Structure formats: C-alpha cells, structure tokens
Fold:
Amino acid sequence: MRGKRGDDMQFHRMFREVLIVSENEQTIRELQKILDEVFTVSVYLKKEDALEKLRHKLGEVAIVICELAEVERDDYRLIRGMNEDDKLRDVPLVVVGERREESFLDIHAEIKCLELGAVDFILKPLVPDIVINRIKSLIRLRESTAMLNILERDSLTGLYTKEFFFKRVEEYLAEHPDEKYLLWVSDIQGLKVINEKYGFDKGDEVLRIMGEYGVKHTPGFIFGGRIEGDKLAALVYARDKSEMNDVIVENDTKTPFPVSNVSIKHGIYRIDTKLNVTPRGMYDRALLALQKIKSQYGVFLGEYNDALRQDLLLKQMILGSADEALEKHQFKVYYQPKHDFHADKTCGAEGLVRWDHPDIGFMNPLLFISLFEQNGFITKMDFYVWEEICKTLKKWESEGVPIVPVSINVSRRDFEVPDLAGRITALVDSYEIPHSMVHVEVTESAYSDDPARITETVKKLHDSGFVIEMDDFGTGYSSLIALSSMDLDVLKLDRSIIENDHPGSEKNILEFSMQLAKMLNLKTVAEGVETKEQMERISDLGGDYIQGYYYSKPLPADEFAKYLRDKNSENK
Ligand code: C2E
Ligand code: CA
Ligand code: CA
Structure:
C-alpha cells in the first residue's frame, strides 16, 4: 500500500477500503491505477470471497465495485444478497461494464442493476477523473448516512441511542396503536465492579452481549435502546408478569457472558396509550419498578404500578419540604417513658421525632428518617431535635416537673460531622443541663460503618458524662471484642428480639443477650414490650428497664410532663 494523498484523507476517514470484484485483468489494472492513490484497494476474483471480507471488515469498506459480467453470472444474486442483508445494505455497490449500443440486452442489464440496488453504473472505457469523482461523492454520501447512524445507534450494543429510542417508541406506538406493549428496562448489577475487576473491555463486552442476547433475542422484542451506561431498554409485545419473568430468567441464564455471576435486574411498565405518558416517563416508571426490587434477593423483575408512583411522589414531597419544616417548626418531639420495674418508677425517656406536615399529615419517622439519611438532611434535623429536647428539659425544670434523663437518637450520618462530641456537649452546656440528664443512643449497625471514628466520638461523649446506649441491639453484627472495647452503659434490646422470643427454645437470643449484658456489666432496656407476659419474662431474666406500649406510647411533651407528675405523686 502506498502513502495516500493528504488532501484526500479528510473524506475517507471512516472507510478506507475499496473492494473490486472482477476477473477482467484490464479493469482491475485500470481501477487500481485510478483508486490506489487515495484508497486501499483489494481485488477479489470471486464475489464469495469479497462478501466474506465485507462481513468481517464492514466498518472499513467504503464501496464495492463489481464487474458487470460477475453480477450477471448468477442472475444478480450479489446485488440482491447485499440489499437483503441488514448490515451489508449500507455499503454502496457500483457496477462497471460496457454498453454496446446495438445490444438491447446490455441496456437492460444496466437498468436492472440500478433497480436492484446498485448505486451507480460506470461505463467503460473508464475515464479516471469521472471514476474518481463519482466514487468520492458516493463515499461522502455513505459517510454522512453513517454519521447519522452513529448518532442513532449506540456503537457498543447496536441498539438505539437514548433520544432515538424515545423518538422511535413514540412513532411506533402512533403507527401501531392496536397492539399491547411493555416498556422494559434491564440493569446489569455491579457493572462498575466488573469494570474494576476485569477492565473496561470486559465491562463493554458484558454490555454488548447483554444487548445482543439478553435484549435483542428476547421473544416479543421490537427494538431497543441504550439509555444510560448500564441500562438497556426495549419496546416489547405485552405479556403478563410471570410469563415475562420466565422469559428473562431463561434468557439471562443462557446469555454467554464473558465473566461469571453477572446479575441482571429488570423493570417493566405496561403501556397504556390512553394515559399520555411520554416514552421518557414510561422508562422512568419501568426503572422505578426495577429499583424497587433491586435489593431483593432472588427477585429479578419488578412491574410498575400506581402505588410505586405514589411512593415516589411522597418521597419527593418529603425531601422537597424538609427545609421548610425546620423553619416552620413542623418537627415535634414525643417522649416515650423507660420504666424501671424493680423500683417501679419512670427512669428516663426517649425523645422521638414526629413530623406534623401541612399536606401529608402527621408522619412517623420511619417514613422520612432513611430518606434524610440518604441525602444527609438527617444531621440538620437531629441538631434541631436535640435542641428542642434541651429546651424542653430546661422548661420542665423551671416548671418543677420531676424530670428524668432523656435520650437523643444519633444517626450514623451524624458521625460525619467534625467534632460531633464537642458540638453535642456545647449544645447541652448552652442550656445548662447536666450531662447526666442526656443519654445518647447509637444504633448497633452504625458501629460497623466507621468503627474507629464512632468509637472515638462515643468515648469522648462518655468521658464527659453522657450515658451511652447501644440502640437496636441484635440487629447489627457486633463481635464480643468490639462490644467489650466500646464505652457503653446500656444495651437496648431490639423489639424484634422480644417479639420473636420463644421461652424454653434452645439458643434463645433474649436469654443470651441478657447474659451478655451482665458479663459486660451493662444495663438493659427491653424495647417494644407490649404485654404483661413479655414484661414478666424480662423480669424473670433479670432485665433492668422496659420501654414499650405496655407502659406507654410515645407522648407529646405536655402529656409526658403530666405523666411524670402523676407518677411522681403516685409514688409519694
Ligand atoms: P428506635 O430508636 O428504635 O425507637 C423505638 C421505636 O419503637 C419508636 O418508633 C417507638 O415508637 C417504637 N416502640 C416503642 N415501644 C413500642 C411497642 O411496644 N410496640 C411497638 N410496635 N413499637 C414500639 P418510632 O417513634 O416510630 O421511631 C422509629 C425510629 O425512627 C426510631 O427507632 C429511630 O431509629 C428513628 N428516630 C426517631 N426519632 C429520631 C430522631 O430524632 N433522630 C434520629 N436520627 N432517628 C430517630
Ligand atoms: Ca432509639
Ligand atoms: Ca431501638
């Protein structure tokens, strides 16, 4: 191959190669002479070999030039074949031949070639300037169509790109309104990890194969698109959820991924054309259904329903109105008594937040705490709640309420605040409240997030006189060593332990927890005690304190102050 002329390089950046199919030595020589300056020219005597090459180097071949005699040899099968093949169709085919004026047959051949899909017919004798200019303009045309294709198709998966996919969905639904469809989205779990572990090439390969086998080969597939990095979507004919589930499970197990343990999760949205949902909206809904099942083990397909949407809207509303809630004092603190049943008196309380939302209504923290933990707002809210508790304690003190220590809940995210211990101490000090009147609850599972940091913060708080309670004990994974090295005063046994207790059973967790607390010299609070039997059981096992509906539900501040006063006068 000789060096190519610089000024010509610009227009054959994408496709460099010209294939010539001919047995005619003169044609070959002439074409080579004309084209060799600009292109890489390969000559094939047989069209079968040329086709083979074409299939393998589709992205490089600019044009195929074929001798008329060769095209005619098997009744134009080459042209027909190329035109019927989805991929080969885009490669222009030019026929070269002689026209003998006296022969009607030859004119017929020229027309027939063009009719069947050849893009041009170049007459012999070949005039170099004409040949080179015609070939160049054909290639330019091909390049601009290919450019369009590049924007339309994702180069890796061959599926549509995002915008084209959405556009095609819209068009297709309008063109074929009588069928029923699903918008289906698939997400490769942990593609990031695959990239990191095996390299980006493998990650790409996983995606490509997913597009090829997992999506395109699915029965009912109409067309698909790559929407985000690891998310592929498709329009498919509707089937019911269990059928769809069978199809995808079978598909995914058969898909020949280059690495093992690729897990794929799917979401579907049943398209109802009467609803005026945009394709983007359909995709979002299918994705929502997917996200819902993302963390569910052994579940691979989620279907969108309206409850999911309500859920989403609620979440958006919660997150969107959080700042305003702080400003407008919509967060309220309720107090749930802790009962010392040996001394039969209230020995403390836990401060629990509620949200009096103007539109949603009175909200339980389970609805918003985890959302606030995700977006970090929890820290603002917690400081607000702690301050409310301090204010209330101070107020009660001045009103002569027989106050008890109140515990504050510290979220795992709060530990990201620099000098959290110092800030809590400063807050409590600013209300001149003795540290012993404030207990700090830290959920067991938080300790494993960042053990060093949490242990250090907890130690500081403990050293300055705050009582530390490990919350939700039994739901985390504390080792004995970890437990004994932490500065704890109290184990709060999670409600689930009490709820699932079966006295007399082997390896009883409630009994074990009580023994553990004794070994470590910690007091216990049994949470969620609702019945007399549960209370007696805790008592039998030597528990210290109980917090649960059996004694009282969480109460608004005023009611709790009254509760304390009433208990106090009962005991006199
Ligand atoms: P938690 O810290 O484990 O609080 C105990 C939960 O158990 C409270 O739920 C309480 O109302 C409930 N409970 C108490 N006794 C019983 C009973 O006998 N039966 C039943 N079924 N439930 C009982 P609540 O108030 O809904 O709070 C839920 C969770 O929200 C809390 O669990 C805590 O993790 C979190 N939370 C509450 N307030 C705050 C706060 O101010 N800050 C932070 N970071 N989290 C909070
Ligand atoms: Ca708690
Ligand atoms: Ca708890």
About this structure: DSSP finds 23 helices and 21 strands in the chain. The longest helix spans residues 128-152. The first strand starts at residue 17 and ends at 21.
